[in-house]
């Protein structure tokens, strides 16, 4: 491994990822398992964004469910309208019977191009709005985390309250078609899986470039010592805003892909608890690493499915213990274990574990 | 007119509940800068303490009065344990504290589910608190709400007095204002932290006792209410109590008024937007301690 150039290593990594996702997984897993994996990969896409915003940028966002939900609802609204057919209302609106015609804000989602664009742009717009207000006024750290969590709470209450037009607690369910393809057909489910896997790989490539660009350096600098970056003439608010908006766009896309993969989007999937569950996967895998969040998100989601059905209580304890142990005692996540082993061999300082600015300085001086 | 008065009182009583919950946070988050997500579960512990006490002390009024100090002690002890075991290792990493205490809160919820069962339980309120006091012709106020309002006034007064006039309060303020200077002046900052955490968590227990008067007791009762309480402290500004007091009542009124004009769900969203807008004007909250650190 050590003889390869970094560029070769990246290509090898992506090649390996592509082989696992596109060849090994479909060949080895049953259709049922594959559709579960498709769901986990959606969470992994959200995790890539959180890894960028939180791991690299220090922005603990506890409201990614909002963006996941915006993307998911935008997609589900289009698919519901397409299922209902031209001029008809989605089934649940007929069922509640409160409305005589389609609400005006539903109408544009009948257009597939508009709906697809909205799945990504709507979350980015909301993130831009909140982020530019909040970061410019230097609201940060825990305050930002609490605000982002409050956003998730408000979104869920709004969705549940507007039952007639949003489906309320049930959400948008029974989605049958995906741009003309019948989702009950296993072949089409596989197609959805391949789309999700492809999007994940593409976003990983994008994030890798972003992390290794000048911007990526700046983002880590803002995380570790915001004031020093400001004194150097940069505006930390803009740096954070980009990471937050990109993460929101990824979460939106993930939500949009989640809908055809699972067939439902509901407030229970996007509220406070799911939002913080996105974060635990990232923490377990390693927040600042590129692949850490992906593997962590898939592993945690898989463990949840495997354990929570048979031992629901045990899973909650385990989840809580994971939070406590990983965050308190292994802040770099499992990814940092590998780094520790390698460092012990090579005796090199490590820059991927986040630390606050003053401690970095102390370490620099001590070294 | 009656409607407006009625909504006004609804707002005050929402504010009172918010403040009772936020008061403990104003200490642990506001004074010590620790984001304790398990605070909601300390509230739950207080509520279950009331429930357990009522199994032995059957007189509803007496058991409620006994529950107040006992819940304070139970929740306070849980807080001290948490501070000693985890939080003190994380003072330099506030965001990580948030996640760690979230994990603790998950485990406590499950513990409550295993011990008391997943369905909600109910306590019996003393007769006098189930009645209402009528004011004027068609306006009446539930006595339980009045009791909570009284409890809040008492708690705020006691806490303010303790912070202002007792030696412990003086030490707490000293540590908040300048930890290093307090330490070199001979104050055992670690012990002060633990005592502050005891009081803050204990107040959560008291809030839990009060909440048993308003609704059922369940394992997840703390989760939803805690975010509003955190917002109160954020908007009020950290480092002092008066901001939280004012903001709790203002937010309560705003919520009640907007809810009257629109719906509950729209009111929640409007309150959130109002908070973000307010932070544009005062990003550090309503009142702040002046420091020379970089904003």
From TrEMBL, chain A:
Signal peptide: none annotated. It is a multi-pass membrane protein. Its main location: membrane. Keywords: Cell membrane, Membrane, Transmembrane, Transmembrane helix. The chain crosses the membrane at residues 37-54, 113-135, 142-161, 191-210, 231-251, 257-276, 288-305, 317-338. The keyword Transmembrane applies. InterPro entries: ABC_transp_permease, ABC_transptr_urea_perm_UrtC, LivM-like. GO terms for molecular function: branched-chain amino acid transmembrane transporter activity. One of its GO terms (cellular component) is plasma membrane. It is found in: Cell membrane. NCBIfam families: urea_trans_UrtC (TIGR03408). This is Urea ABC transporter permease subunit UrtC. It comes from Catellatospora methionotrophica.
Automatic annotation (TrEMBL), chain B:
Pfam families: BPD_transp_2. GO terms for molecular function: transmembrane transporter activity. GO terms for biological process: amino acid transport. It is a multi-pass membrane protein. One of its GO terms (cellular component) is plasma membrane. Belongs to the binding-protein-dependent transport system permease family. LivHM subfamily. This is Branched-chain amino acid ABC transporter permease.
